[in-house]
Specification:
single chain; alpha+beta; 19 helices; 56% helix
């Protein structure tokens, strides 16, 4: 079973050498509190919590799972104690406003914290993780009274939160939501309906659970235009803000799942439960996007976590397991066979995991910089530009990183051979736990439609500039008249990056032109487009990492072998993984004809 080791050296490299995080923090209000010593202390203490408390519960939590009995859920042994340590350590409050009990540190630190926690134990991480999206939604859309009551308790961590969207008859198509909200005399609402697939919807970790619920008011317009958003606590809240009687939110059952068995996925029945409107009437879906975007970035973390943890499991095995002799000559003649790691195909799998783990982490942290700017930009123009960039990155991260994370998890099993299929090694659990990542909070196809159908098509391609301008500027620094001392070393990255950047823009307009003639063109091209975009963004960040590594080697700073490995992994990515984008490029511009021409009756089993 992989025992998680926090990759602090890699995190430090990204923060200090690639992204110059201290310069970034000095540029945002409140960032001055995140001093180098403070950041190092936070990361070090979080690493200890993850390695010593959460990681040991990962496999046992899966084996035991959650227990359901008469509407109550008991989490696996050790989960509640771990959550109490989490709350006592103030981890939930890290990046939330001081006025509600938070520490007020940049949201980027919260993302790094979530990555370490999620990699150590993804199932456990979902309990506090769902709360983060609920907290952001309350912060942005609730009135001051509701913020004071609910946000303070959730910031403490003594109350947790959920997102209640899905119903038995609808998942992605929220226009079919049937849950009702009827006005009470005291200004609250009676919420009635059933929600399914509610992650962390019922558990024994916290004294109350705050549900963020989509429901319809009487006479509301049909479809998504008639949905409102409500706070519905599991237990009512007394005047002194202590927990009161049951609020008629009953857990009907929990799902039996392929993976993440330590996380309860609940069916919740709201039987006239007392709720409170947040945001305007019939604008609930717009408000819920705050939660959904937070959740999508959170699920992107799961993709990186899968790549990292599977790599941490397969690498020691590949170094220790003896199997056959190297094709290029015996490497360890004193042993009965050479270790797996000498074989090219095993190295292909390990390097793919490493490239996706470290490249994915860079994509997360890059996006986190924009999240910081959205939260604390000094001008509306800066905020809008940061928000548009983050809006473009979010579906790319969610789709690309979860798909590559699942690939990495499967490669981890493959390195083990038959042993990877056996539970005791823990590799198959990573695969089972990760499979959901491409499904919840919007499937890969939904993310792809969000990127191409909403962000690109609705802006007529204008939004693409938010992603391409920084990449173009980076490439330009190595242009014909550049005197950059690392130009010769970097051209192997800059030349293909510049070419694919130009191709990205051309492909975008080709797809837009095709869609102007056939609307199915968007649906047929979208998944290829989002994956292509992911490969381009990751290429940019691998080039930036290589640049930083060359600079540190020249100045004699840092671990030379670590830095050489960065450059070599970047070379592998550009040689072996970036060319996959060409297949996506070729496919996305094909007409939808071969997809759509077959009559439905001809989809048959015979």
């Amino acid at each position: 079973m992989p025992q998680y080791k926090a990759p602090l050296k890699d995190i430090d490299f990204l923060l200090n050498d690639v992204f110059d995080i201290q310069k970034h923090y000095q540029s945002i209000p409140g960032g001055e509190e995140a001093t180098p010593d403070m950041v190092d202390m936070i990361l070090s203490e979080c690493a200890k919590f993850c390695e010593n408390v959460l990681s040991p519960l990962y496999q046992s939590g899966d084996e035991e799972g959650c227990k359901f009995d008469a509407g109550k859920v008991t989490t696996p042994k050790g989960f509640k104690d771990a959550y109490e340590q989490y709350v006592a350590g103030g981890w939930q409050s890290l990046s939330h406003p001081v006025e509600f009990g938070g520490q007020g540190l940049p949201s980027s630190l919260g993302i790094i914290k979530s990555e370490m926690i999620g990699t150590a134990n993804w199932a456990w991480s979902m309990y506090p993780g769902l709360s983060l999206g609920a907290m952001n939604t309350v912060l942005l859309h609730a009135n001051d009274k509701l913020k004071e009551i609910y946000l303070t308790k959730m910031t403490e961590g003594t109350w947790t939160g959920t997102m209640c969207l899905t119903e038995p008859q609808c998942g992605t198509d929220l226009g079919q939501v049937k849950t009702k909200a009827e006005l009470n005399e005291d200004g609250s609402y009676a919420i009635t309906g059933t929600k399914i697939f509610i992650s962390a919807g019922e558990h024994d970790l916290a004294e109350n659970i705050v549900h963020i619920v989509l429901a319809r008011l009487p006479g509301a317009p049909k479809g998504t235009r008639g949905i409102s958003l409500f706070i519905v606590p599991k237990n009512k809240v007394k005047a002194d803000q202590s927990v009161g009687e049951s609020n008629n939110v009953i857990c009907g059952s929990i799902e039996h799942k392929m993976g993440i068995k330590g996380s309860s996925t609940a069916v919740l029945n709201f039987d006239g439960a007392e709720g409170y409107l947040i945001g305007p009437e019939n604008k609930g879906l717009e408000c819920m996007f705050t939660f959904m975007n937070t959740a999508r970035i959170g699920i992107s973390i799961q993709g990186v976590a899968a790549s990292e943890l599977s790599y941490q499991g397969s690498l020691p095995y590949a170094k220790e397991r003896l199997s056959m002799r190297s094709l290029s000559g015996t490497k360890e003649p004193e042993k009965v066979a050479d270790p797996l790691i000498v074989h090219p195909d095993v190295r292909r799998m390990l390097l793919t995991q490493k490239a996706f783990a470290e490249g994915g982490r860079a994509m997360l942290y890059y996006s986190a910089l924009f999240a910081d700017k959205v939260a604390s930009a000094e001008t509306e123009k800066e905020r809008e530009e940061a928000d548009e960039t983050l809006g473009m990155l979010t579906p790319i991260l969610k789709a690309f990183l979860t798909e590559t994370g699942y690939e990495s998890a499967n490669l981890g099993m493959q390195v083990f051979g038959g042993h990877g299929f056996i539970s005791e090694w823990g590799m198959e659990q990573i695969v089972r736990d990760t499979r959901i990542s491409t499904l919840y909070e919007g499937t890969t196809g939904i993310q792809a439609l969000d990127l191409l159908g909403r962000k690109i098509m609705l802006s007529k391609g204008a939004n693409l500039k938010f992603l391409t301008k920084e990449i173009f500027s980076f490439c330009k620094d190595y242009g014909l008249i550049s005197r950059n001392p690392h130009k010769k070393d970097m051209l192997k990255f800059i030349t293909p990056l510049f070419k694919i950047l130009a191709e990205w823009q051309i492909l975008t307009f080709r797809v837009m032109h095709g869609a102007s003639k056939d609307r199915d063109y968007v649906g047929s091209a979208s998944v290829d487009y989002v994956m292509y975009s992911g490969y381009v963004v990751m290429a940019f960040l691998w080039a930036k990492m290589a640049q930083s590594a060359y600079e540190k080697i020249e100045t004699g700073e840092g671990d030379v072998e670590f830095l050489k490995a960065k450059i070599q992994t970047a070379e592998f990515y550009f040689d072996r993984l970036l060319p996959r984008a060409k297949v996506h490029a070729n496919t996305m511009v094909k007409t939808p004809k071969s997809l759509m021409q077959m009559d439905e009756a001809n989809f048959s089993f015979s």
